[in-house]
Structure formats: C-alpha cells, structure tokens
Amino acid sequence: MLKSILGISPPRVEVNKEDDFDTWYEQVVVKGEMIDHCCLPGYFILKPVAYGMWEKVRSWLADHLQPLELQSFSVPILPYLGDRAQAPYAVSGSSSFPNAESVIYPYCRKWIKSHRDLPLQMNQWCIRFQHEQNPQPLLRNCEYLLQEVRSAHITKDSARQEAAQILELYSLLYRDLLAIPVVKGYKNAAYLQDTDISTGVVIAYIPATNQCIEGAKCHEFGQTLSKAYEITVRDPSATAEPAALLHVWQNCWRISIRALGVMVATHSDNHGLVLPPRIAETQVAIVTAQASSTDEQLILDTETDRLVSRLSSAGIRVKVDDLEGYSLGWRFNEWIVSGTPLFIVLGPNEVTNQVVTIRRRDLLHAEGKVEAAIPELHTIIPTTLANIQEELYRNALAKFQADQTRIADNWDDFIKSLYRDKLVCLAPHCRQRSCELYIEGMGSDGTDQALGSHIRCLCVPLEQPGATEECTTPCINPTCKYSALKWAMFGYAY
Amino acid sequence: MLKSILGISPPRVEVNKEDDFDTWYEQVVVKGEMIDHCCLPGYFILKPVAYGMWEKVRSWLADHLQPLELQSFSVPILPYLGDRAQAPYAVSGSSSFPNAESVIYPYCRKWIKSHRDLPLQMNQWCIRFQHEQNPQPLLRNCEYLLQEVRSAHITKDSARQEAAQILELYSLLYRDLLAIPVVKGYKNAAYLQDTDISTGVVIAYIPATNQCIEGAKCHEFGQTLSKAYEITVRDPSATAEPAALLHVWQNCWRISIRALGVMVATHSDNHGLVLPPRIAETQVAIVTAQASSTDEQLILDTETDRLVSRLSSAGIRVKVDDLEGYSLGWRFNEWIVSGTPLFIVLGPNEVTNQVVTIRRRDLLHAEGKVEAAIPELHTIIPTTLANIQEELYRNALAKFQADQTRIADNWDDFIKSLYRDKLVCLAPHCRQRSCELYIEGMGSDGTDQALGSHIRCLCVPLEQPGATEECTTPCINPTCKYSALKWAMFGYAY
C-alpha cells in the first residue's frame, strides 16, 4: 500500500466551526487546497481550486457586463503600491507615494475629450494592497485580486442608474454563483452632509460568527473628483458657443476575492469545504473501486468512460478518481474536505447491478445518499446539483432572515437583540451621523465594551421593511430628537 | 461643426519609420490608442485596444494549452518585487528582497508529494518588473504582463518534450495570431558546460531596424533547481523499499506583452498601426456618410443595421462609425491610425446602388480599394480579412528569410553580411562559448564598435539549413580550431 509507504494521513479539519471559527476557517481553506501561505504574513497563494473559482467569478461578470461595453485597461501597480504595501519592508518616506486615484484620474481627464466619450467605464482586473493587522486568507489579504470599474457620466441620473444596476448585479452574482443572500443598501450618514457622495454596498452575513461583511461596493463620488481633477465636457445641449463646461459624475465599483472567503465561511462545515455546484471546479467525482481481475477492470473502465462522456455532454464538470493504493474511505475523505458537491462509487458490483449510490457533500449522512440507476445519471445529476445550489442558498437565507434578523421599533428590543441575542437589527433611524456614532459607541457606554465596538450601522437597505418610502416613527435612539427617515441595518461588522 | 468647436485635429504619425524608428514606434502606439504613458518613466497604461489584444493572446493560449491541463495559480507579487522594481523610489537595503524563484520553488517542493503529481505545470498570468534604462512601450516596460508556467517532470525526456511542444506552440501563436514568422532554436554555448540546462527561444525579426528579438522562451533547468530546493519523488518503478528518491526535471516557459510590441514594429507603417485581422478588436469599420433627409437617414440606418447583423453572424467584429460633425476624411484617418484592417463607406448613394468601396488598411492606395456588392459583403469580407492576415505574414516572412538572411560559410561573407549589409547570418559554428564571445566582440576588434556591440549569437535553429544533423565544415571563425557542430544564427539583437 502506497499509503503506508508515504505515511500520508488523510487531511482532516481538526477544529469545529462553532468552537473556534478562525482556526476552523484557516484549516478549511488550506486543507481544501484553496490557498497556501506565502513567505510573508498576510500574503496567500491562490491554488488552482481557488483561482479556478475566481475565474468563474470573472467570466460570470464578463458575461453579465457585456451589454455595458466596458473598456478594459491595465494600469501599472508599482506607481501606487502605496505606503501600506511597503510596510513589511519598513520603507521610510513612503508617505509620498501616489495612490491609485492620483494615477488614474488625470488620465480620465485626458481620455474624456467630449460628451461622446461618456459614459466612460474603465474596467480593471487587478491587484490591490492593504495593511491587515489580523490577516485571514481571502477575507483579509494584504495583497488581493479584484475587479474595479471607474466610470464617468454626463448626468447625476446616469451615474445613479449605473450604481443601482451594479448593486443589483453584484447581489445577483452572490445569489446565483455563490448561493449567498445579500442585502443591497447604502451606507448611512457618514457622507450625508455632501449629498452628491454615497456608497452602495451589498452586505452578506456569516452565520457562524453572527457577523455581517461588505461583499462588494459602488462609490458614487458625484462631482467631487471631477472638480478636483478638472474633468469636464462641453454641454452637448448648449445653444450658445462656446458651450458651458460640465463636470462629470463619477462612480467606482469593485468586488474582490473576498467573495470566495465569504462563500467558504457561509457554507462550509466541520468536515471541510462545501462548494455550491456552480462555482465548484469539479461538480461530480467518480471514485472507482478496485476490480479483482483484468476482465472486470476492462468492463469497469468502459463503464466509467461511458458515464464520464454522458455527464460531460450534459454539461457536468466530472473527474474520475482511480487512485490506487488508498482505501475508499481515504479517497472519500479527500472529496469531502475539498467540497465537491457530489461523488459516486463505481465498482464491479455497481456495474453489474447498474445502480450507484450518489453521495451529497452538503448532506453527509444517510439523507445525502441516493441510489440511482446508471442509465439515468445524466438526468438525475444535473437536477441534484441544481437542488444543492438552491438548498445552500435557502439555508443561508433562512439563517440570515428568519433566525438572525430582528425588526426593532423600540430601544429595549433593539439593544437586547443586538447585544444579548447578537442579531442583525433593522431599526428606524434619523440618518444623523452623530446618532449613528452614539449607537456604534454604545459598547463604551456601559453595555458591553468588547462587543459594542464592532456594532455598526451596516447600511440603509434599498428594500425597506415598512410599506411607505419614508419611515414615520421617531428615531430608535431615545436620546435623539429627530424623526426616523429610513430603516437602517445594524449589526456586528466584520 | 463640432470639429472646429473642439479644435481637435486628427491624430497623425509625424515621423517616418525609416527615419527615426523609436519616435515613429512611440507615436504609433500612443496615437493608435494602444498605450498611454504613466506617471513614472517605463510604466505604461494598456488601453482597451492593447488590453483587448492581450486578452486574445490569453484566450488563444488557453484554447491551445487545454490538452495539457495546466494548473493555474496566483502568487502574490509583493514578496518578490525585487530590488530593481524598487529603484524608482531609491529604497535602501533592497538587495535582501526574495526573488520569484525563492518564493515559488519551496511550494513546488511541498506540492509535489509523489510521482502522481507529475508533470506539475503551474500556470500564472501575472506581472513582472525589470529595470529598463531605455524603456519603450510594450517592448521594454519596467512593469509588464506575462504568462509564465513553471513545470516539474519525472524524466528528462518528459521535460524536453514539453519544451519542444511549447516552442512550437509559441511559434504558432506568432504566426497564426500576430502574422509574424519566428525561428525556433536553442540558445548556444553559454550553458554548454552543464548539458542539463538549456534555453529554447523563438526569435522574431523587426525589419525596420534589422534587429532580432526574443519573442518567448522556455528555460530547461534540468535538475539544477530540484537539487537546490530538494524537490524529489520516490521512484515509481523501484522494487526495493523504500524506493529511491528522484530529483525532478524542471522547465519555465513564458511569453509577455512584448509580443504585441513586436507585432506593431513589424506590420505598422508611416500612417499608423496595421493590425492583423485575427488580433484586431474591430475588424471592419462601417463609416456612414451624412444623409440629406430624414427619410434617407432611415433607409441608411436600416441598411447599416442589416449589414452589421449579417457581418456579425459571419463572425466578423464590426463597428459602426456614425460620428457627426467630422468630415469623412477625418474619420477615415482615425481608422487608419488605429490600424483597423478594413473600412467601408456607407452613404445614400451606396445604399441606392447596393455597391460599396472596401478599403484595406494594409494597402492604402488604389490597390487597396475594392468595389463590392452589399449583398455579397458577408462572404467577400471574411475572405479579404483572411487574405490580409496571410499577406501580412508572407510579407514579413519574405523580408526575414529572403532579403535579410544569409547563409554564410566563409568568414569574409559572414563579416560583410553582418556588419556591412546588416543581415541575419546562419554560419557553421563550434558552439564554444569563447568562440561565440569572440564573434560577439568583433565590434571592439576594429570592425565597427557601435554596431558590433549588438551582434549576438541569437540561437541554434531547430531547422538547420544543411541536410545533415551535424554540420561538417570548420567553424566560421578562422581563429577557431574546432569543427562546426551546428549552423548558428547571428545578428543584431534587440
């Protein structure tokens, strides 16, 4: 047995999600072969499993963004690595590094020669750097991959429309590809003074830690940047000559590989990764059992080839595991840890009876095993994969909405739900920055310091729980003298 | 007229290729909208035209590499930016930066657990940095995009086979996509002492400067790296236990955006970019002329839409130029400078007569204009595009092979062809490093210092001009006492 020769024991996740989320998460992404640590803390190698998923995100977005006719650029990164990226090397005088904005917007000015060039939507698939005190693979990388679009519009309406469309798209990506429910909304009062500026976000939820996390965002800068960088066009509707100069309206929208980290944190369990079928590189593994004779092996190989070709024709990503020298249990374990949605054992018995057992990764025990006739697999498997995708989403949604979210309309309920029950709360809010700070600072106000410091006003959801557009009750905060304007979402922020 | 309002004059290349290649090249890539300069010298923004081409290179390679089942990784770049990348910021103590090898190969060791993991072919689409004294967009970027594969094999044969296959593939990419002929070969004597190590290259030729340039390469490291990093597997064919450890055989192959620079330098002319149709984002531009009435405009729009839909169905990338306020000549000029292979004027007359004039970018004058019936365009245009692709390749090949290459079998011919006629020479060569250095140093030996310093032994071509495998004449160098082993290629190196 090669197993004993090599002395390799099967990879197992050794910590429970509910006991020690950080260690569990770390083990799941490493043992599931998504990432490996690099030579500096906070830097991670994306292995083929994770890189393949990022490519799926990329091609999903490319397909869905096609109608926008984005223009793709590649801007060098060295000129704006930024001082934080240099931190590991303790470079001095680095505060004079230019940032991404100061590199890109002067070009934006140059490239926008007339209103005909608008909307300009500059797309980049690139790398960014940030300083992370407590790095965590995918979720908090010091160096990470992202899609970033910087756009310029002739009117505020056009910019707003784009932002709404993009929030919808990012939210669809989370739901459709990653089986994760998100809440679309706008960041609250921080920018309220200058009404041109706002930030749309999609907020996801990690049930194991009761934490909410920003999954993607769209900054609406209004005319702030175009005024700073003098990005203007002549008014095309002007009748006088020369036509007046208009400052353009700018957005910046981005989604990063953090999306994959959110997916892992949401669906995976104490046995390892659980991957939604749409994002999984291998959707079905066929684990072949040992044949006892050459003839039997020949029949088994023929059946395997036929099954692979029929599944592939049905659009299924299938892989054969005919690894010798390892027990079936050892090999199952590898498929379990790596999160493959379905696996099938195919051996001489199965070929004779023309029946196999399909095992679902998301339901490991008896309820996840289904007997199925081999000739029907090419129709049963696509349906099962679709069910898995759907059920992962439904479970995540149920946890977020029903179990973990409260609509609170009085202060006691609000505080109790937030601090004691650790729920996400929707509460009527005045949208004043000072009031937001008061609530976020409640922890230091005597309730629970450690937890309180992570409570945040996450967003003002686009879909309000009330029937009317404007909220009519007073602000949730009893010390606040204003009326509520909207329902705002509060909770533990990642 | 908007033109006069905006005061924009059409972009024109103001320098001739034959007069001042560097300035011409710079203007062609900037005015053809491929690149823009960034805030640091040597750093360039790839604009949509160039980035789109790089994506075509990427997808061509992805298609052709599919049978190899490469594994795609993303390795952080900050840990090995390297000291040269830091040069613009004059960072001190930077010589202690790790390099790409010292980051990646320890992982290679970790990931290769058994012979089953071989061949391991780690693919990356990534960024690299290099110091460039005389930066030139695409050809000599300080920061550039590339594909890089690091592979490990169990036998020397397997590694050699891969290298040969990859050289063939890169050479096909140049021919098929970029319409550029290349010579496949191996770097000569520098590594001859250690026969495990060699470097395969594809050499392209830039006619305007009589310079050869490395278009892509494949390093064969033999077991050098596996010995340095202790990358071993157990011998799968061993009968004794424990099986002996074998050091793996490693290659590294790469192609960069330089390929696009070589393409520009080869095909473009004094009017701007000339793009091979397969790499061009827009293959056909339909330039619509002004209609004199609303009715006429309606008819024209209908005809345009019909033509676009028929060309698109035929797989042609087509764009309509209905820019108002600019003269036809001004608009033609933009399509010429940007290198679009074909453009068509479509106006009320053309619609009435159902005949248009197709203008070829590669043949700007009378010979490039063809009258064609509109209903036949969807068959004529694909053929014309294929012809352009083919002719660009044939012209480049003719220049390289017939006009610019000499087979020299005596010293006088060799020196005269190299130094006076500035040709590429194939000459019988002993493959000794000292002899190669003697020839490369001829410039400093009295002949022509300035030119001589750029003469290099470019490669030993895989296809030898002689009928026999081994060359039988003495070495070309009369001061050399050895027999020739192969025909080697000498010329001005970029």
TrEMBL record, chains A, B:
<dbReference type="Pfam" id="PF00587">
    <property type="entry name" value="tRNA-synt_2b"/>
</dbReference>
<dbReference type="InterPro" id="IPR036621">
    <property type="entry name" value="Anticodon-bd_dom_sf"/>
</dbReference>
<dbReference type="GO" id="GO:0004827">
    <property type="term" value="F:proline-tRNA ligase activity"/>
</dbReference>
<keyword id="KW-0648">Protein biosynthesis</keyword>
<keyword id="KW-0436">Ligase</keyword>
<feature type="domain" description="Proline-tRNA ligase class II C-terminal">
    <location>
        <begin position="411"/>
        <end position="494"/>
    </location>
</feature>
<dbReference type="GO" id="GO:0017101">
    <property type="term" value="C:aminoacyl-tRNA synthetase multienzyme complex"/>
</dbReference>
<dbReference type="InterPro" id="IPR016061">
    <property type="entry name" value="Pro-tRNA_ligase_II_C"/>
</dbReference>
<dbReference type="InterPro" id="IPR004154">
    <property type="entry name" value="Anticodon-bd"/>
</dbReference>
<dbReference type="InterPro" id="IPR004499">
    <property type="entry name" value="Pro-tRNA-ligase_IIa_arc-type"/>
</dbReference>
<dbReference type="GO" id="GO:0005737">
    <property type="term" value="C:cytoplasm"/>
</dbReference>
<dbReference type="InterPro" id="IPR002314">
    <property type="entry name" value="aa-tRNA-synt_IIb"/>
</dbReference>
<feature type="domain" description="Aminoacyl-tRNA synthetase class II (G/ P/ S/T)">
    <location>
        <begin position="98"/>
        <end position="238"/>
    </location>
</feature>
<dbReference type="GO" id="GO:0006433">
    <property type="term" value="P:prolyl-tRNA aminoacylation"/>
</dbReference>
<dbReference type="InterPro" id="IPR045864">
    <property type="entry name" value="aa-tRNA-synth_II/BPL/LPL"/>
</dbReference>
<dbReference type="Pfam" id="PF03129">
    <property type="entry name" value="HGTP_anticodon"/>
</dbReference>
<dbReference type="Pfam" id="PF09180">
    <property type="entry name" value="ProRS-C_1"/>
</dbReference>
<dbReference type="GO" id="GO:0005524">
    <property type="term" value="F:ATP binding"/>
</dbReference>
<dbReference type="InterPro" id="IPR017449">
    <property type="entry name" value="Pro-tRNA_synth_II"/>
</dbReference>
<protein>
    <recommendedName>
        <fullName>proline--tRNA ligase</fullName>
        <ecNumber>6.1.1.15</ecNumber>
    </recommendedName>
</protein>
<feature type="domain" description="Anticodon-binding">
    <location>
        <begin position="283"/>
        <end position="362"/>
    </location>
</feature>
<keyword id="KW-0030">Aminoacyl-tRNA synthetase</keyword>
